[in-house]
Amino acid sequence: GVMRGKYINIKKFESALEKGFGFCDVVFGWDTADELYDQPTVTGWHTGFPDAPAKIDVGTFRKIPWEPGTALFIADFEYPDGSPYPACPRQLCKTVLHKADAMGYKVKSAFEYEFFLFDETPHTVREKKYENLAPFTPGMFGYSILRSSVHSELYHDLIDTCREMDMELEGVHTETGPGVLEVCISVDNGLAAADKAALFKTFAKVLVQRRELMATFMAKWSPDYPGQSGHLHQSLWYKDGSSAFYHDTKALHMSDTFRHYLAGQLRLLPEVLPMIAPTVNSYTRMIKGFWAPTHSNWGLDNRTCAIRVIPGSPKSHRLEYRIAAADGNPYLALAASIACGLYGIEHKLELPPGVVGNAYDLETSPENANLPETLESSTAAFHQSSVMRELFGAGWVDHF
């Protein structure tokens, strides 16, 4: 996704706080390159592109370090009566989180992102037609202390900026590939975690462009290197503060709630995949042997699976949703994964056996459910799914 916005003065801001404000609804008819979708129903030439009602979320206040006297807020699209605008990803995420709350659960999440840096500018990448781009650093060097120290000024600038903008990073390191970094954003409650992820993807690009560099969060920048992940860590908690995923005496310390939740995610992953993998490029990442999952499966601390169960204490027991890539919209990735998990709890779905060893070698085993291999096939499965319409509403499914 793309964050859209504009500057407004104090007087307009005060009015918007009280009454809301209008924002052209063409943003729900554009793709990431401002090309209009074919036959959208929410907006289009047939509607005249009117303003959509928006409301500022004052809880998202942040300061931008290099813009003194300027405040940043995230806004929701919603109608004057408070009902959600049907095409707004953040509102969809809030709706799913409200359902979790009604079921007695609090969601904690954390995103991690891989992204490539290039010694390029917006002008040079176009002049080169996006070919033969110069990476920020050459060669393969995952977890490199050498490169991290050489470029420590950039690293510390990124770390400090994220801390000042309330999206603190737990860690930063080089990954395997020329100029690729990985960051882990600190855990937070559901919506706040998605806000931090969306802001990070935007302002990481801002920060490096101010240094005459370019960042890409494409799922697969080059066929020669592993794709860029957007892994999502998550856990459910009861309202008394205890873990809904951890059980003292159950196998692998996985509670029944955890097992049903995971079973729902696995069962529905082939149908919900477009919300996780939303571009043609997304499907080029899911290649055998390139650190990305190829089937709907799970394993204990197994990085060859779509979902990795990470064992630990009651505080750290969680799952890693490894199917998600860096190009995904964090609000949709979170909404999709949680909604499918809650479906599993509601229907008490049975968890299939976990994969032991290399999941790439078990492609025809019962533990591995096939996934659509193209955006076209995954979109067809999504659109035809009665469960997707049940979880997200027919209006959202048809628009998306």
TrEMBL record:
Lineage: unclassified sequences, metagenomes, ecological metagenomes
Pfam families tied to this protein: Gln-synt_C (PF00120)
Family: Belongs to the glutamine synthetase family.
PROSITE patterns: GS_CATALYTIC (PS51987)
SUPFAM superfamilies for the chain: Glutamine synthetase, N-terminal domain, Glutamine synthetase/guanido kinase
Keyword RNA-binding: no
InterPro entries: Gln_synt_N_sf, Gln_synth/guanido_kin_cat_dom, Gln_synth_cat_dom
Name the UniProt record assigns to this protein: GS catalytic domain-containing protein
UniProt GO molecular function: ATP binding; glutamine synthetase activity
Keyword Glycoprotein: no
GS catalytic domain: residues covered: 89-400
PANTHER family with a match to the protein in the record: GAMMA-GLUTAMYLPUTRESCINE SYNTHETASE, TYPE-1 GLUTAMINE SYNTHETASE 2
GO BP terms in the entry: biogenic amine metabolic process; glutamine biosynthetic process
Keyword annotations: ATP-binding, Ligase, Nucleotide-binding
